Amino acid sequence: MLWLYRVLFVPALLLMAPRYLWRMRKRGGYGARFGDRFGALPPLPPRTAGVRRIWLQAVSVGEVLAIGPLLEKLHAHGLEVYLTTTTSTGFRLANERYRALTVGIGYFPIDWWPFSRRAWQRIAPDLAIIAEGERWPEHLRQAAKRGVPVLCINARMSDRSFRRLRRFPGAAKLMFDGVTRLLPCSTHDEGRFRELGVPAAKLFTTGNIKLDLVIPPLTPEQRGQLRQELGLADAGFVLLGSSTWPREEEALVEALQALRAEGVTCSLLLVPRHAERREEIERLLGRTGLRAHFRSRGASAGPVDVAVGDTTGELRKLTQLADLVFVGKSLAPHTEGQTPVEAAALGKPILLGPGMANFRVISQELLAGGAARQVADPAALTRECLALARDVAERASLAQAATAWHRANAGAVDRTWQIIRETLGA
Predict the structure, then answer these.
(1) How far apart are CA 159 and CA 161, in angstroms?
(2) 267, 238 in Cβ contact below 8 A?
(3) How confident is the model at residue 29, as a pLDDT?
(4) Contact 331, 321 (CB under 8 A)
(5) Residue 242 and residue 116: Cα distance in Å, rounded?
(6) pLDDT value for 6
């Protein structure tokens, strides 16, 4: 099966290359370190005698942020970590935050055997850790060839991947056989891995490491300065669209206009999932006549109706300004959802659309615990925004429940660390 993967990989790569090259050009930042994609990594520092080296792969911004507490723990216990990521935004954020915690930061190589083999030869890890859904057959094969154990941490299985792998059990075998231990982030995901044939002995549900995040709170002075920079100094009630996708910005603008029509002093803070959509969002806001400011352009010259956080890695900071948070990629036609964890950790009342497949368990727990409300469509979003903008006590109740849920679900990083210790000891 691996040889078939190797043979088909090149034509598949050539077929998909135009699409990915266009996306890379649109998002920008991919020119530097392009050789990493082919395994041509810069030289690493010499190995320290007696110190184990770990190759940790985290795909993009969400995963890079999530591994922070784990990286600190690995560093504190004297382990060397070489960190790779896939996207330019993830790479930039990793460099900003984790230089002191790693021996190097690079891009993950294309999963074809010459490129993967070259990267493995240069990094030469004692343990490979892959986060969430990163299970690349060639990467796993290179680990097995060298006798290096592989841990898949915070492992999850999306609806789409689950459907595909059930139809192609050979592909599932190729993706899971090379993993030493699989650490699902929920019992729901563990059940899916079991159904796909992963032996129970390989599975250990640790919980979601994203729930162990600690977000430094802004001081009152910092909050005031940030509001001033965004043009929200006199905003009153702030509605946040967190990691929004196309058509959701329109729904949130309609909610803003309805709130103002009812006499509510409020403003909208939009943080799109992909910052490169700024021109599309600017055209949308231009048609409404609302005053808007984009954070990437510096400080606002004055008050605005809509502030757009089109920067990378600032969602946690911007969320602290919100009185109500709508979690994006959850209204039709979107079905997968973005993470509500940051909003819950910060004790914010949360609104979710029905499409939260990637965070099904978390969203169900938040709804059941009274920490969030679900809105079926844009009209329902507007109704809930109106109701909660007027009901301070209900917002406080939702916020309190969100904080309680977050505290009750911590501990995944410690459980993950224990498995890493066991694996290295073995």
Answers:
(1) 6
(2) yes
(3) 65
(4) no
(5) 36
(6) 75
Specify the DSSP class assigned to residue 42. Answer: P
CB neighbour list of residue 22: distance below 8 Å, 6 or more residues apart: none
Given a contact cutoff of 8 angstroms between Cβ atoms, the answer to whether 93 and 313 are in contact is: yes
pLDDT of residue 381: 98
> Is the CB of residue 326 less than 8 Å from the CB of residue 356?
no
Question: Distance between CA 72 and CA 244 in Å, rounded?
Answer: 30
**pLDDT by residue (tens digit) across 185-219?**
999 999 999 999 999 999 999 999 999 988 999 99
Could you give all domains of the chain from N- to C-terminal order, each with its CATH number?
A: 35-43+52-207+411-425 (3.40.50.11720), 220-408 (3.40.50.2000)
| Strands of the sheet with 306-308, listed across from one edge | 292-294, 306-308, 266-272, 237-244, 324-327, 350-352, 372-374
Q: Quick one: tokens of 299?
A: 């400080």
Q: In the predicted model, is pLDDT for residue 22 greater than 80?
A: no
CB 293 within 8 A of CB 230: yes
Instruction: Give the pTM.
Output: 0.83
- Which residues touch 128 (CB under 8 Å, ≥6 apart)? 54, 55, 57, 139, 143, 148, 149, 150, 151
| Other beta carbons within 10 Å of 401 | 20
